[in-house]
């Protein structure tokens, strides 16, 4: 432990190498809990040896190279909001907290892209884009605490995924530190037409193939109009048939959530865009749902679904 700290302190500064047991315990877990269907295992009780908080890509590169030379595991840490146990240090090692890499570096309103550091929190990204009339397309419930690179590394899905897809679909380019400390940058082009698409080697990989330190993301114009609607169905099959018909017609709501719970079978919808398009899509959707036996609970019945991205 002493040698590990002694080697890391000159890279990031002694104050950014944490070994306090309380901090170690806090970082050595995410939101994975027994009710999420895992069996208790002694490996899940293992703690990291140190928490390291680099300030930039160069420091990340040096830390990763240092760990590689000593065969010490490195676990990238974003917001700690994952529910799959990705940050659990089952073999000990270094947890690499990317929270200090938190800047919005560039916004291109013409190409509608934003260059962002890995540790930027989604809520801060929303705030940074708002003055430009833009917004991210990814809005999970964890918006106030999830990080950009964390959502890329898990290829997370947010409430607006029906329109914008998972986070990986919004990635234009990446800067990544490879396991040996080398830094690579993929090109910020709209389509990969020569050679493999390297972005998808890292999207959803949870840091296995490299540590994402920067991303260029597609961002989107803030909508002119937005309408919520909630439909209730007598059974799940009827709701599913309505959703299938909407897809066949090319109706693409921003949010589509068909749920079955104690309240019944509910289809939550959000339409966003220009006013005439929103109105037309909402009218046709109501017609489709009526034909499938759905009963409207009224527009705007369940805006709580998007309160995290407000």
TrEMBL record:
Residues 44-222 form the FAD-binding PCMH-type domain. Transmembrane segments: none annotated. Gene3D superfamilies: 3.30.465.10, Uridine Diphospho-n-acetylenolpyruvylglucosamine Reductase, domain 2. Pfam families: FAD_binding_4. One of its GO terms (biological process) is lactate catabolic process. This is Glycolate oxidase subunit GlcD. InterPro entries: FAD-bd_PCMH (IPR016166), FAD-bd_PCMH-like_sf (IPR036318), FAD-bd_PCMH_sub1 (IPR016167), FAD-bd_PCMH_sub2 (IPR016169), Oxid_FAD_bind_N (IPR006094). GO terms for molecular function: D-lactate dehydrogenase (cytochrome) activity; D-lactate dehydrogenase (NAD+) activity; FAD binding. Belongs to the FAD-binding oxidoreductase/transferase type 4 family. It comes from Geodia barretti.
């Amino acid at each position: 432990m002493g040698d590990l700290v002694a080697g890391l302190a000159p890279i990031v500064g002694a104050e950014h190498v944490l070994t306090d047991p309380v901090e170690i315990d806090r970082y050595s877990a995410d939101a994975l809990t027994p009710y999420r269907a895992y069996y208790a295992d002694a490996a899940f009780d293992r703690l990291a040896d140190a928490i390291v908080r680099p300030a930039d890509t160069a420091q990340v590169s040096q830390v990763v190279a240092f760990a590689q030379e000593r065969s010490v595991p490195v676990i990238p840490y974003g917001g700690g909001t994952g529910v799959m146990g990705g940050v659990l240090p089952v073999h000990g090692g270094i947890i690499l907290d990317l929270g200090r890499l938190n800047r919005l570096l560039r916004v291109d309103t013409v190409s509608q892209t934003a260059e962002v550091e890995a540790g930027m929190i989604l809520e801060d990204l929303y705030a940074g884009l708002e003055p430009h009339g833009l917004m991210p397309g990814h809005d999970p419930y964890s918006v106030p605490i999830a990080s950009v690179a964390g959502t890329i590394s898990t290829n997370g899905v947010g409430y607006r995924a029906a329109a914008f897809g998972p986070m990986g679909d919004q990635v234009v380019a990446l800067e990544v530190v490879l396991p040996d400390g080398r830094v690579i940058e993929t090109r910020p082009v709209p389509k990969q037409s020569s050679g493999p698409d390297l972005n998808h080697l890292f999207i959803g990989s949870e840091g296995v193939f490299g540590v994402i330190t920067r991303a260029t993301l597609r961002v989107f114009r803030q909508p002119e109009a937005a309408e919520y609607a909630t439909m209730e169905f007598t059974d799940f099959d009827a709701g599913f048939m309505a959703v299938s018909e909407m897809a066949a017609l090319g109706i693409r709501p921003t949010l589509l959530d068909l749920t079955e719970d104690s309240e019944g079978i509910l289809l939550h919808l959000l339409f966003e865009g220009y006013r005439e398009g929103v109105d037309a899509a909402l009218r046709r959707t109501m017609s489709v749902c009526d034909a499938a036996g759905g009963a409207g609970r009224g527009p705007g019945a369940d805006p709580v679904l998007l309160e995290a991205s407000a």
